[in-house]
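Weekly structure sync, notes
Attendees: PL (lead), two postdocs, one rotation student
Agenda item 3: pending single-chain targets
PL asked that the sequence for the first pending target be pasted directly into the notes so everyone works from the same version. It is reproduced below exactly as submitted, 249 residues in total.
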Amino acid sequence: MKILVAVKRVIDPYIKIRVKSDNTGVETQNIKMAMNPFDEIAIEEALRLREKGWATEVIVVSIGTDTSQETLRHALALGADRAILIRTEAFWESLNIAKMLKKIVDDEKPQLVIMGKQTIDGDNNQTPQMLASLLHWPQATYASKLVTEDNHLEVTREIDGGLETIRVNLPAVVSTDLRLNEPRYASLPNIMKAKRKTLDIIELEAMGLALKKHIDIVKVNAPATRSGGIKVDSVATLLDKLQHEAKVL
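Predicted structure, written out during the meeting:
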C-alpha cells in the first residue's frame, strides 16, 4: 500500500508578508520559508497509517525550484520514505498542478493521495478536487478524522452544519483539515537519516504534459492601512460621529 503526499514550500505563516515594490507579487527574497501547515498534517496522517501497518510506503512530492528540496528533506526527516521534486521555475495554477500530480500518480500507482486542503499563500482549495476529477477517483475533503478499512476509508469531514461522515472506496484522494491531527517534530537522528534518503528530481519539460496558463497576476497590493480607533465620552458623541463622519446611520 503506497500513500502519496503533496507538499508545498510557502512563506512561514508566523512572519509578516510584504508586497514587492513593483506590485508584481509577494516578497520572497531573504524571507523565512516553511512547509505549508496543512501539508504537515497530511504527512502526519500518512505516517500514522504506515505505523499502524495499513500502508508500507509514504512518498512525498513537491513542485517548484531547487529550493523546494529543503521542504522535501524536512518531510523525509519527519519519516517519509522517499521524495520527488518536479522542477520548474514557473508559477502554475491549480489545474496545471493537478495535471502534474496525476502524472506522478499514474507512474507511482499509490492507493491513497493525501493533501492539505489548501496552501496558505494561494488559499485556492482547488487542487485536491481537481486531481480527484482527473483521476476519476472518489474524494473526501476537509477531513478531521480518518478510519481505515481493507478497501475503503471512513472520513469525518467538517461542513457548515457540523460534521459529516462518508465512506470512500480506494483508491481515493483525501484533503486534510486542521483538526485531523497534531504534526510531529523531526528528531536530530531522523534529520541526519533524511540526507541519505532518495530524492528524485524530474524536469517538468520531461513529463510530456500539455500545460497552458489560465491565470495572469496583473497586480498585487497590500491591504489598506486601517487608522486607529478613538474613545468617545458619551453615547451622543458616538451617534454624532457615526452619522456625520462615518456616515453609517
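Discussion points:
- The longest strand covers residues 139-148.
- The domain at 2-244 is CATH 3.40.50.620 (Rossmann fold).
Action: rotation student to compare against the earlier draft before next sync.
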